[in-house]
Amino acid sequence: MQIGLIGLPGSGKTTIFQALTGVRSSISTSSKREAANLAVVSVPDERVDKLSEIFRPKRTIYSSVEFTDVAGLQGVDTARSKGFSSTFLAAARNVDVLGIVVGKFLPGSDPQAELEEIELELNLADLSVIQKRLERLNSEISKTPAARRVELEKERELLQRLEQALTNDKPIRELEISADEEKMLRGYGFLTAKPAFVILNVAETEASKQDLDLHLNLPTVQVSGIIEAEIAELPPDDAKAFLEDLGLREPGINRVIKTAYDTANLISFFTVGEDEVRSWTIKSGATAVEAAGVIHSDFARGFIRAEVVHYDDFIRVGSLAEARRQGLLRLEGKNYIVKDGDICHFLANV
Ligand SMILES: Nc1nc2c(ncn2[C@@H]2O[C@H](COP(=O)(O)OP(=O)(O)OP(=O)(O)O)[C@@H](O)[C@H]2O)c(=O)[nH]1
Ligand SMILES: [Mg+2]
C-alpha cells in the first residue's frame, strides 16, 4: 500500500516526508536519490505494544505502509501555478492513496482555496485522460462489427458517466462503481478515484492544536511539519521531553500514519506467540482465508480453520487459556470476516 504525498509547491511535502522517515534528504532537488523518496513506515499501534509486553516475544513487528514524496520522484518541482506536470501526474497515478499536503503556516494562506485548486487539477487530469480515450473509443467502435462492440460500448458508457461527474466537480471516488466497472477502470489510475486525506501543515505555534477550525470535505489531520521533522531527528528521550513541552502525548506524525491507514480502508489483525508478536494488514472486509494468505500463500491454500479472539476480549480476561475457557476463543471458517484487532491463529494443511 503506497501513500503519495502531493500538494502545491512549498506546501511542506518534503518536510512531512522527513518527519515520516526521520532522515533528512534533499528530495525535491535530486533525481539520483529515488530510493530516498520511498519510506516504509511502521504503523504505531498501542495494542501491539501491549501484546508485546504480555508475550515478551523475540520479535515484535508492526504493520507498515509506504509513503512517497511524489514531487521528489522526478527530482524536479511541480510546475508552479500552471498545473501539475505530466511526470508528476504519471507518478501520482501509481500510488494507492493520496495524502494531500495543504500549507497553512504562512500568514494569509487559504487552505480551503488551496485544496480546491488541487482537487481541480486532479479533476482536469482525469478528464483529459477520459476525453482522449473517448475519442479513440469512438473511432474504434465505428470500425468494429456490431457483434463485437459490446465491451467497447460498455467502456464508453462508463467513461461518459465519469466525464459527466467530473464536469460537475464530482470526484470519481464519490460515484457508485460496480466490481466489473472497477476492473475496467483499473488500468487508468484515475487520481480522483483514489482514497484521499488532507494533511494540514500548520505553523509551529499551532503544533499542539488538534481541533480543526476548518472543515474540508476529506478526512483531515493537522500537524506542524517543521516541528514533526525536528522531533523525528531527536533521540527518543529528548523527543519525549519536547513532546511534553508541547503538551502532546505522541508525535503528530502518528496521526498522519493512522489517518492514511484508515483512509486506505486497511485494518490490522495480530498473531501472537513466544517467537513473534506481529500485526498484519488486510483490507477491511477480508475473509479469514484471505488473511491467512497474507501470512503465507500456503496458509490460504491449505486453510482448515482459524482460532480467533478479539484483542479487547483477550485483554479483559488476560490469557488465551482463559479466553478459551470462556468461549471467547472461537473457531472460524474460511468466510469469516476478520475484524480489526482480531488475534488469529490459522490451522492449515501445509
Ligand atoms: N514556518 C514553517 N515553515 C514550513 C513548515 N513546513 C514547511 N515549511 C517551509 O516551507 C518550505 C517548503 O517546504 P517543503 O517541505 O520543501 O515543501 P514541498 O511541498 O516539498 O515543496 P516542493 O517540493 O518545492 O513542492 C521550506 O522552506 C520549509 O522549511 C511549517 O510548518 N512552518
Ligand atoms: Mg519537496
Automatic annotation (TrEMBL):
CDD domains, sorted: TGS_YchF_OLA1
Entry's Gene Ontology cellular component terms: cytoplasm
Tagged with keyword Metal-binding: yes
Superkingdom in the source lineage: Bacteria
Cofactor: Mg(2+)
PANTHER family for this protein: OBG GTPASE FAMILY, OBG-TYPE G DOMAIN-CONTAINING PROTEIN
Protein's recorded name: GTP-binding protein YchF
Gene source species: Thermobaculum terrenum (strain ATCC BAA-798 / CCMEE 7001 / YNP1)
Organismal lineage: Bacteria, Bacillati, Chloroflexota, Chloroflexia, Candidatus Thermobaculales
